Amino acid sequence: MRIDGATLERLAATFSGKLIQPQDPGFDAARQIWNGHVQRRPALIARCRGAADVMAAVRLCREHDLPASVRGGGHAVAGHAICDGGVVIDLSAMTGSRVDPLTRTIQLQGGCLNAHLDRESQALGLAATGGIVSHTGIGGLTLGGGLGHLMRKFGLAIDGLRSCDVVTADGDFVVASEQEHPDLFWGLRGGGGNFGIVTNFTFDLQPLGPTVLAGMVAWPMDQAPEILRFLREFIADAPDELGMMANLRLAPSLPIVPKELHGKPIVALMATYAGPADQGRKVLARIRQLPTPAFDAVTPKPYVAHQKMFDAAYPHGRHYYWKAHKLGPLTDETIDVVVEHAAQVTSRLSAIPIFCLGGAVARVPEHSTAFPYRDASHDVEIVASWLPEEAGDADRHIEWVRRLYHALEPYSRGVYVNFTSDDAAERVRQAYTQGQWTRLTALKAKYDPTNFFRMNANTPPG
Ligand SMILES: Cc1cc2nc3c(=O)[nH]c(=O)nc-3n(C[C@H](O)[C@H](O)[C@H](O)COP(=O)(O)OP(=O)(O)OC[C@H]3O[C@@H](n4cnc5c(N)ncnc54)[C@H](O)[C@@H]3O)c2cc1C
User: Once rounded to an integer, what is the mean pLDDT over residues 38-55?
Assistant: First the structure.
């Protein structure tokens, strides 16, 4: 599809950002998203500078019936940020932010990344729950819920969300909060990008650090059953301050990993203590009763550095495919399934990260946001990753993900909508409870009856 010159000129007259067309230098770079496996060619990339640009871009699409996608951080593994033949409403240049120390809040423009949240808030010794990779977009992450190292203490990203500036499917501007458009505010907290484009987020901040006791401890994979059983017991009565994850993979060649372990299968625990380090040491003493680890990198360190720990493991442009399940407490059966499939991994870059939920996440009443199954204990991701030059092997790696995904299906407590890959509509449906789905589809009918915002984990209008 080509957008005619007159239409483009009209947009350009009201647009302060950059309009990038296929013939422009830089187009190929601008259409790349995090997942190199997804390659699409839009007709136009409208790189917005603010809400006025977003409104102009939405109105152009509506008037000319052009399909559109919305790009925040570009991390959705399914490639929702980019469309074929339509308009990408690109927020990646909208990364302004401001911390208000008096109200302990931060305002973040819709294209901000976790790195922006962490850097600005930590400069004042404050923090909010963000994701575990610093280059993930706040936009998509928050609208789906937002898991992170701090969630057991501070709740999900949406639990600290105060208000959103939203450009609707008609190109209008509204504020959504508990006071204004509360129905929309409810849907934005877990319903994904279905109801509008958030041009500005305001989050509550909490005191943290800036140094936290955090890091990774790892053992050879043959100890995985013991370590995961320990994790099950340990996290069940751990204080909210303790954020925990497990990860099963072949050890990467990183400086913290002893050379002799590089490329060898390991099971790792990642701890983040959102409280005084000496308390954290006492809590983590139980880990020290486990068999001696292959390495132990838990140490006081800047929270901002900890938040970048996984950045190198998930670079832009590599090829990825993943699926996920929410689970109840790990059982011997689920542990066996995970360990068995970890041993069959097909790529040295693939991994099985396991988030531990609970704490503050579980205490928020389920009906108060659109984030479902808050009582789930874990979120298990099955992440396949391979180099672009290994594209011929893609099917093998994707098949590994699907095999483990199917093996865990009998134990599934639904899916976190931000961890869906090529999932069919019924999987998006399974992401929500019946009550939430009824409310979300009604909200979609009210705010986006033509399903203009459909490049997402889509809720159709009811
Ligand atoms: C390496 C990596 C690490 C991750 N770690 C975590 C994690 O720790 N915790 C977690 O919860 N999730 C995590 N995720 C999943 C992540 O939350 C989703 O991929 C999310 O969609 C990323 O948002 P984005 O803005 O970067 O992506 P995009 O692909 O730009 O957007 C994702 C969806 O949100 C919509 N969207 C984005 N911004 C806006 C906006 N401002 N207004 C309206 N709609 C918008 C887009 O249209 C699209 O449908 C991770 C993903 C990756 C790739």
Answer: 97
